[in-house]
């Protein structure tokens, strides 16, 4: 009888229930919070990258900017490293004659109608590379009035270790891009030539 009373009183006891419930919920809560912190940090880092890149891209549209590219890129790195100190950066610039040319392949006459530039078909070498390219942009700043695609890629290690438990990669890569036209400090120059596909 005594053991039965002890069992009934144990069933009705509520002391420590909150601690047990918290112990059950705490791991899930920690994962959710770490995920939110990681997502917030990633968004903030990307916003910093976008803002710094936009300011830097304006500076690279003026005449003589080609002599200042290292300084312009260093400014982006300095601004973003205030938030993401361990970030590594990759900067690329491609120049196009017009905004509508960005990311477009060079024109070619598809004589055999196979969708590939081959068999000596003529093509317009818009970027002066000597070969047909799927992107007609020329590396660098280009010249006056050219549209320049400025891209910055940033890679850094996640700040919150819980991401690996969820199968997320340890490294995060953010990319920011913008297209601006160089100022009209001169007449626009073209490097386009006619070539033949091999």
Q: H/E order of the elements?
A: HHHEEEEEE
Taken as a percent bin, the fraction of beta residues is 15-25%
Secondary structure tally, helices: 3
Count of discrete structural domains: 1
Biggest sheet, spatial arrangement of strands: 3-1-4-5
Cα(first) to Cα(last) distance is 98 Å
Query: Rg to the nearest angstrom?
Result: 29 Å
How would you describe this protein?
- With 198 residues, this protein is of the alpha+beta class.
- It contains 3 helices and 6 strands.
- A 4-stranded antiparallel sheet has the order 3-1-4-5, with helices on one face. Strands 2-6 form a two-stranded antiparallel ribbon.
- The model has no long low-confidence stretch (mean pLDDT 85).
What's a quick, concise take on this entry?
The chain is α+β, with helices and mostly antiparallel strands and 198 residues long. The chain has three helices and six strands, in the order H-H-H-E-E-E-E-E-E. It has a four-stranded antiparallel sheet, covered by helices on one side.
What is the strand and helix layout of this fold?
Layout: H1 2-12, H2 17-59, H3 69-81, E1 88-96, E2 122-125, E3 138-139, E4 147-157, E5 171-181, E6 193-196
Antiparallel strand pairs: 1-3, 1-4, 2-6, 4-5
Features:
two-stranded antiparallel sheet, 6 strands, 34% helix
